[in-house]
Design a protein that fits this description.
Blueprint (H helix, E strand, L loop, with lengths): L11 E2 L10 E2 L1 E2 L20 E2 L17 E3 L2 E3 L2 E3 L2 E2 L11 E3 L5 E2 L2 E2 L13 E4 L2 E4 L3 E2 L5 E3 L5 E3 L26 E3 L4 E3 L1 E3 L5 E3 L6 H15 L14
């Protein structure tokens, strides 16, 4: 291409469309047999022609936000967006987003759930929404599932409305089947038969009131009416 002037700069040319014959600064790669720009060590610091900035050498870098330099990823429950070049030869720090209460997915944070695995640690899926995991009772109230997901046996107490195992009582309705509430200590205990055939609270050292309560319960359960006549024809 015949040019109006000497045009030997690495980033200038006389064959630019619409400007044939005029030495013009260019963007991108050098034209013709001119030396290529440095490839750099990454997609961001590779050099390029920068138009009017300096037509004699490759002084430009990959355009900001247009060149991906790092893929999107998850770091625990945090979503890290893709990295893009900053236009100055470096990979810009990507935006991050905390996904809790949902888990992170390489495509972005989840926004709904169909199972617990779609929720972050400490959360469960409830009607397609992740909610905080809390302690809850089993259907029979004999055990409690703690907030961390572990299950504990509540015996000799029942699980309370808070979802945790009870630790005191005012009546035997707070105790597991077979256990009784000792009013002297407000604790649930299992009564056991002593060597004399009587009834006492297990664990030793039971109070007189405790022993009496256990005896009344046993007697009440076994009470029956005797209807056999005596010698005078009376019923007893």
């Amino acid at each position: 291409m015949c040019c109006e002037s000497a045009c030997d700069g690495q980033c200038e040319a006389c064959d630019v469309s619409g400007k044939f014959g005029s030495c013009t600064p260019i963007d991108g790669e050098p034209h013709g047999a001119r030396a290529k720009c440095s490839a750099g060590t990454s997609s961001c610091d590779a050099r390029t022609c920068a138009g009017t900035k300096d037509s004699k050498a490759c002084v430009g870098y990959a355009a900001a936000t247009e060149t991906t330099c790092a893929p999107a990823k998850c770091e625990g429950a945090t979503y890290v967006g893709k990295g893009t070049c900053n236009g100055a030869g470096a990979c810009a720090v990507p935006a991050t987003q905390t996904c809790t209460p949902y888990v992170c997915d390489p495509a972005g944070c989840r926004t709904g759930c169909t199972k617990d695995e779609h929720c972050a640690s400490g959360f469960v899926c409830d009607r397609e929404v992740c909610i905080a995991r809390v302690a809850r009772c089993s259907a029979d109230r004999l055990s409690s599932q703690k907030a961390d997901g572990t299950t504990v046996d509540c015996s000799p107490y029942l699980c309370t409305t808070s979802g945790a195992c009870g630790d005191r009582c005012t009546s035997s309705t707070a105790c597991t089947p077979g256990a009784l509430c000792d009013p002297a200590t407000n604790t649930c205990v299992f009564p056991s038969s002593d060597s004399g055939g009587g009834c006492a609270f297990g664990g030793g050292g039971a109070s007189p009131a405790s022993l009496l309560l256990a005896l009344l319960v046993v007697v009440g359960r076994r009470r029956r009416v005797l209807t056999s006549p005596d010698d005078d024809g009376a019923r007893r």
